[in-house]
Structure formats: structure tokens, C-alpha cells
Amino acid sequence: MSTEQDHRDRQDIPPNPLGGRTLVVDARDAKAYPRPSDALAEADALDQVFVRPGTYEDKIFVASRPIALIGAGRDLVQVFSRRGAPLYLQQVPSGRISGISFRYVGSDQHSAMNLLDSTCTVTQCRAMEGILSGVVIYGPESRPTFVGNEFCGNRESGLFVFAGAQPRLAENVSRGNHHFGIAVRDDGSYPELVRNQCRENMMSGILLFHHAKALLMDNRCTDNSHWGFVMTPDCIPSPDQDALESSNTLTPNPRGAVSVTETPLSEIGR
Q1: CA distance 42 to 139
Q2: How far apart are the C-alpha atoms of 103 and 154, rounded to whole Å?
Q3: For the chain, which residues score pLDDT lower than 70?
Q4: Whole-angstrom distance, CA of residue 94 vs CA of residue 66
Q5: What SUPFAM superfamilies does this protein map onto (predicted)?
Q6: 25-to-12, 78, 167, 253 alpha-carbon distances in Å
Q7: What distance in Å separates the CA atoms of residue 161 and residue 182, rounded to the nearest whole number?
Q8: Contact 237, 217 (CB under 8 A)
Q9: Helix (H, G, I), strand (E, B), or coil: what is residue 76?
């Protein structure tokens, strides 16, 4: 490799704000790690992993430690898996993931991104083609922040919050999913939903069901096949039902802005 090429490769590596090493992933470079999981396995608490442009078949599993995983851009870096979710976090206490598309290409019941009882920041990523929802966030200790991501082409919802999770979701786009843009279930689940766009989904933009709560401000749920927002009577949105339309944009959708129903999943046989 030329000196000029070496210089260009060093320039594209982002600084590590933690002060540790940056481990580089590049399937075309014999001096780099071939897959993100290989680099993460050797990363210390203050290290970050940088993924150069490319398509990587990998399963990333991180448990009980921080994560710093930075891709060159979600249009440039794709991590896919045929067997299980390409990203699974369990009890991750902190960290950041950005600039990567996660794609599930198998046929079993898996999502593209799974977060169990984890708290980290996810930005500028994409979750696509999950057989379940694109992103699942669950567990009472799950408090991640998702900002500026895209959830698209998933067989159920774009993003699903359940089992007591309390994430912050802001300025994400959830489009073209088979069910809902964002779905929230269960007593104790309480996401903050702010300035998200849910559009062109095959059911409604946002669903709350089974005793869920949520803060909803400045979201845009338009051009979905059913409603802008759907909930069961046992759910508690903030602001309340009467103020939802003035606090969010919930039209146009063919069936209207808001629906309250005991059977929000009846049209898919549930």
C-alpha cells in the first residue's frame, strides 16, 4: 500500500472521544479486522470500533459492558445475518452505535436490532427486513436513545417497545413496514416519542396497546394505510386523547387521525 493510501486511510478514522484505541474493520484490508464482532471481542472499555464501507455478514452480540461502534455511514456500511439478529445488546450500560445499516435476511422470527435492558445511544442507523419488527427494545432497564435513524421494510412494525422499556425516540423515520411505524405494549412501557415520522406503513403510524403509556409530541404520522394513531382504551398517552391531534400531525391517512379500539390487531388475526 502506498504512503498516500496509508495517509487517506488514517484520515477517515474518526477521533475517539473516550481516549482509547480505534479498532478498524475493513474486509478488504488484511491489516484490519474482517468483521465488527472480531474487533468488539478485543475492544477494551475505552476503545471504539470503526467500520469502513462494505457489506459484512456478522452477528454482533454485546453483553454487560459499554459499546462504541461507529460506521462510515448507513448507506455505506451494512451488517447482515441469516441466523438471528445482526445486532443483539443485553444489559449494555452505555455507549454509542452510529452509521450502520442492520439487515436480517433469514426466514425465522428475528428482528434486525435487539436491545434487552440496555442503555446506549443509537444514531444514523437503519434497521431493515426483520421478520419481526426492525428494532425491539424491551426490559424495565432498557432506556436507550434513538435519534435520526430509519426503520424500513420490516415484516411487522418498524420499532417495537415492550416489557417495561422506556426509550427516548426522536427524529427517526419509520416507513414502509408491514404493520405499524412504532408500536408500544405493556404496563410500565413509557417511551418519549418526539418529532418522529411514521409514513407509508401498511397499518397505522403509531400503536399503543395493553396498558402502555407514551409521551407524544410533534410526531408526523401520514400516508399510512389505516390511521395516524391507534390505541386501546387502557392506554395513557400524554397529552391525552383530546390533545393528540393538536400536538402531533396525524393526517392525512385513509381512515383518519385517531382510533381507540379494543382490537387494534384484528385485521392480522390477533
Answers
A1: 27
A2: 10
A3: 1-11
A4: 5
A5: Pectin lyase-like
A6: 12, 12, 29, 43
A7: 8
A8: no
A9: coil
pLDDT of residue 6: 55
Residue 5 Ramachandran class (φ > 0 left, ψ -120 to 50 alpha, else beta): alpha
Domain positions in the chain are 50-268
Distance CA 19, CA 165 (A): 31
Distances in Å between the Cα of 173 and the Cα atoms of 148, 196, 201 are 7, 6, 11
Q: Which residues pair with 208 in a beta bridge?
A: 184, 231
What is the C-alpha separation between 37 and 139, in angstroms, rounded? 24
- Structure confidence at residue 5 (pLDDT): 53
- pLDDT value, residue 12: 87
User: Has domain 50-268 been given CATH number 2.160.20.10?
Assistant: yes
Quote the pLDDT of residue 268.
85
Give the burial class of 175: count Cβ atoms within 10 A of its Cβ; 0-12 exposed, 13-18 middle, 19 or more buried.
Answer: middle
The pLDDT score that the predictor gives to residue 1 is 46
DSSP class per residue in 6-71 = HHHHHHTSPP-TTSS-EEEE-TT-TTSBSSHHHHHHH--TT-EEEE-SEEEE--EEEESS-EEEEE
Q: Which three cell numbers stand for residue 134?
A: 426492525
**What's the whole-model pTM score?**
0.95
C-alpha count within 13 angstroms, C-beta hemisphere, residue 57: 4
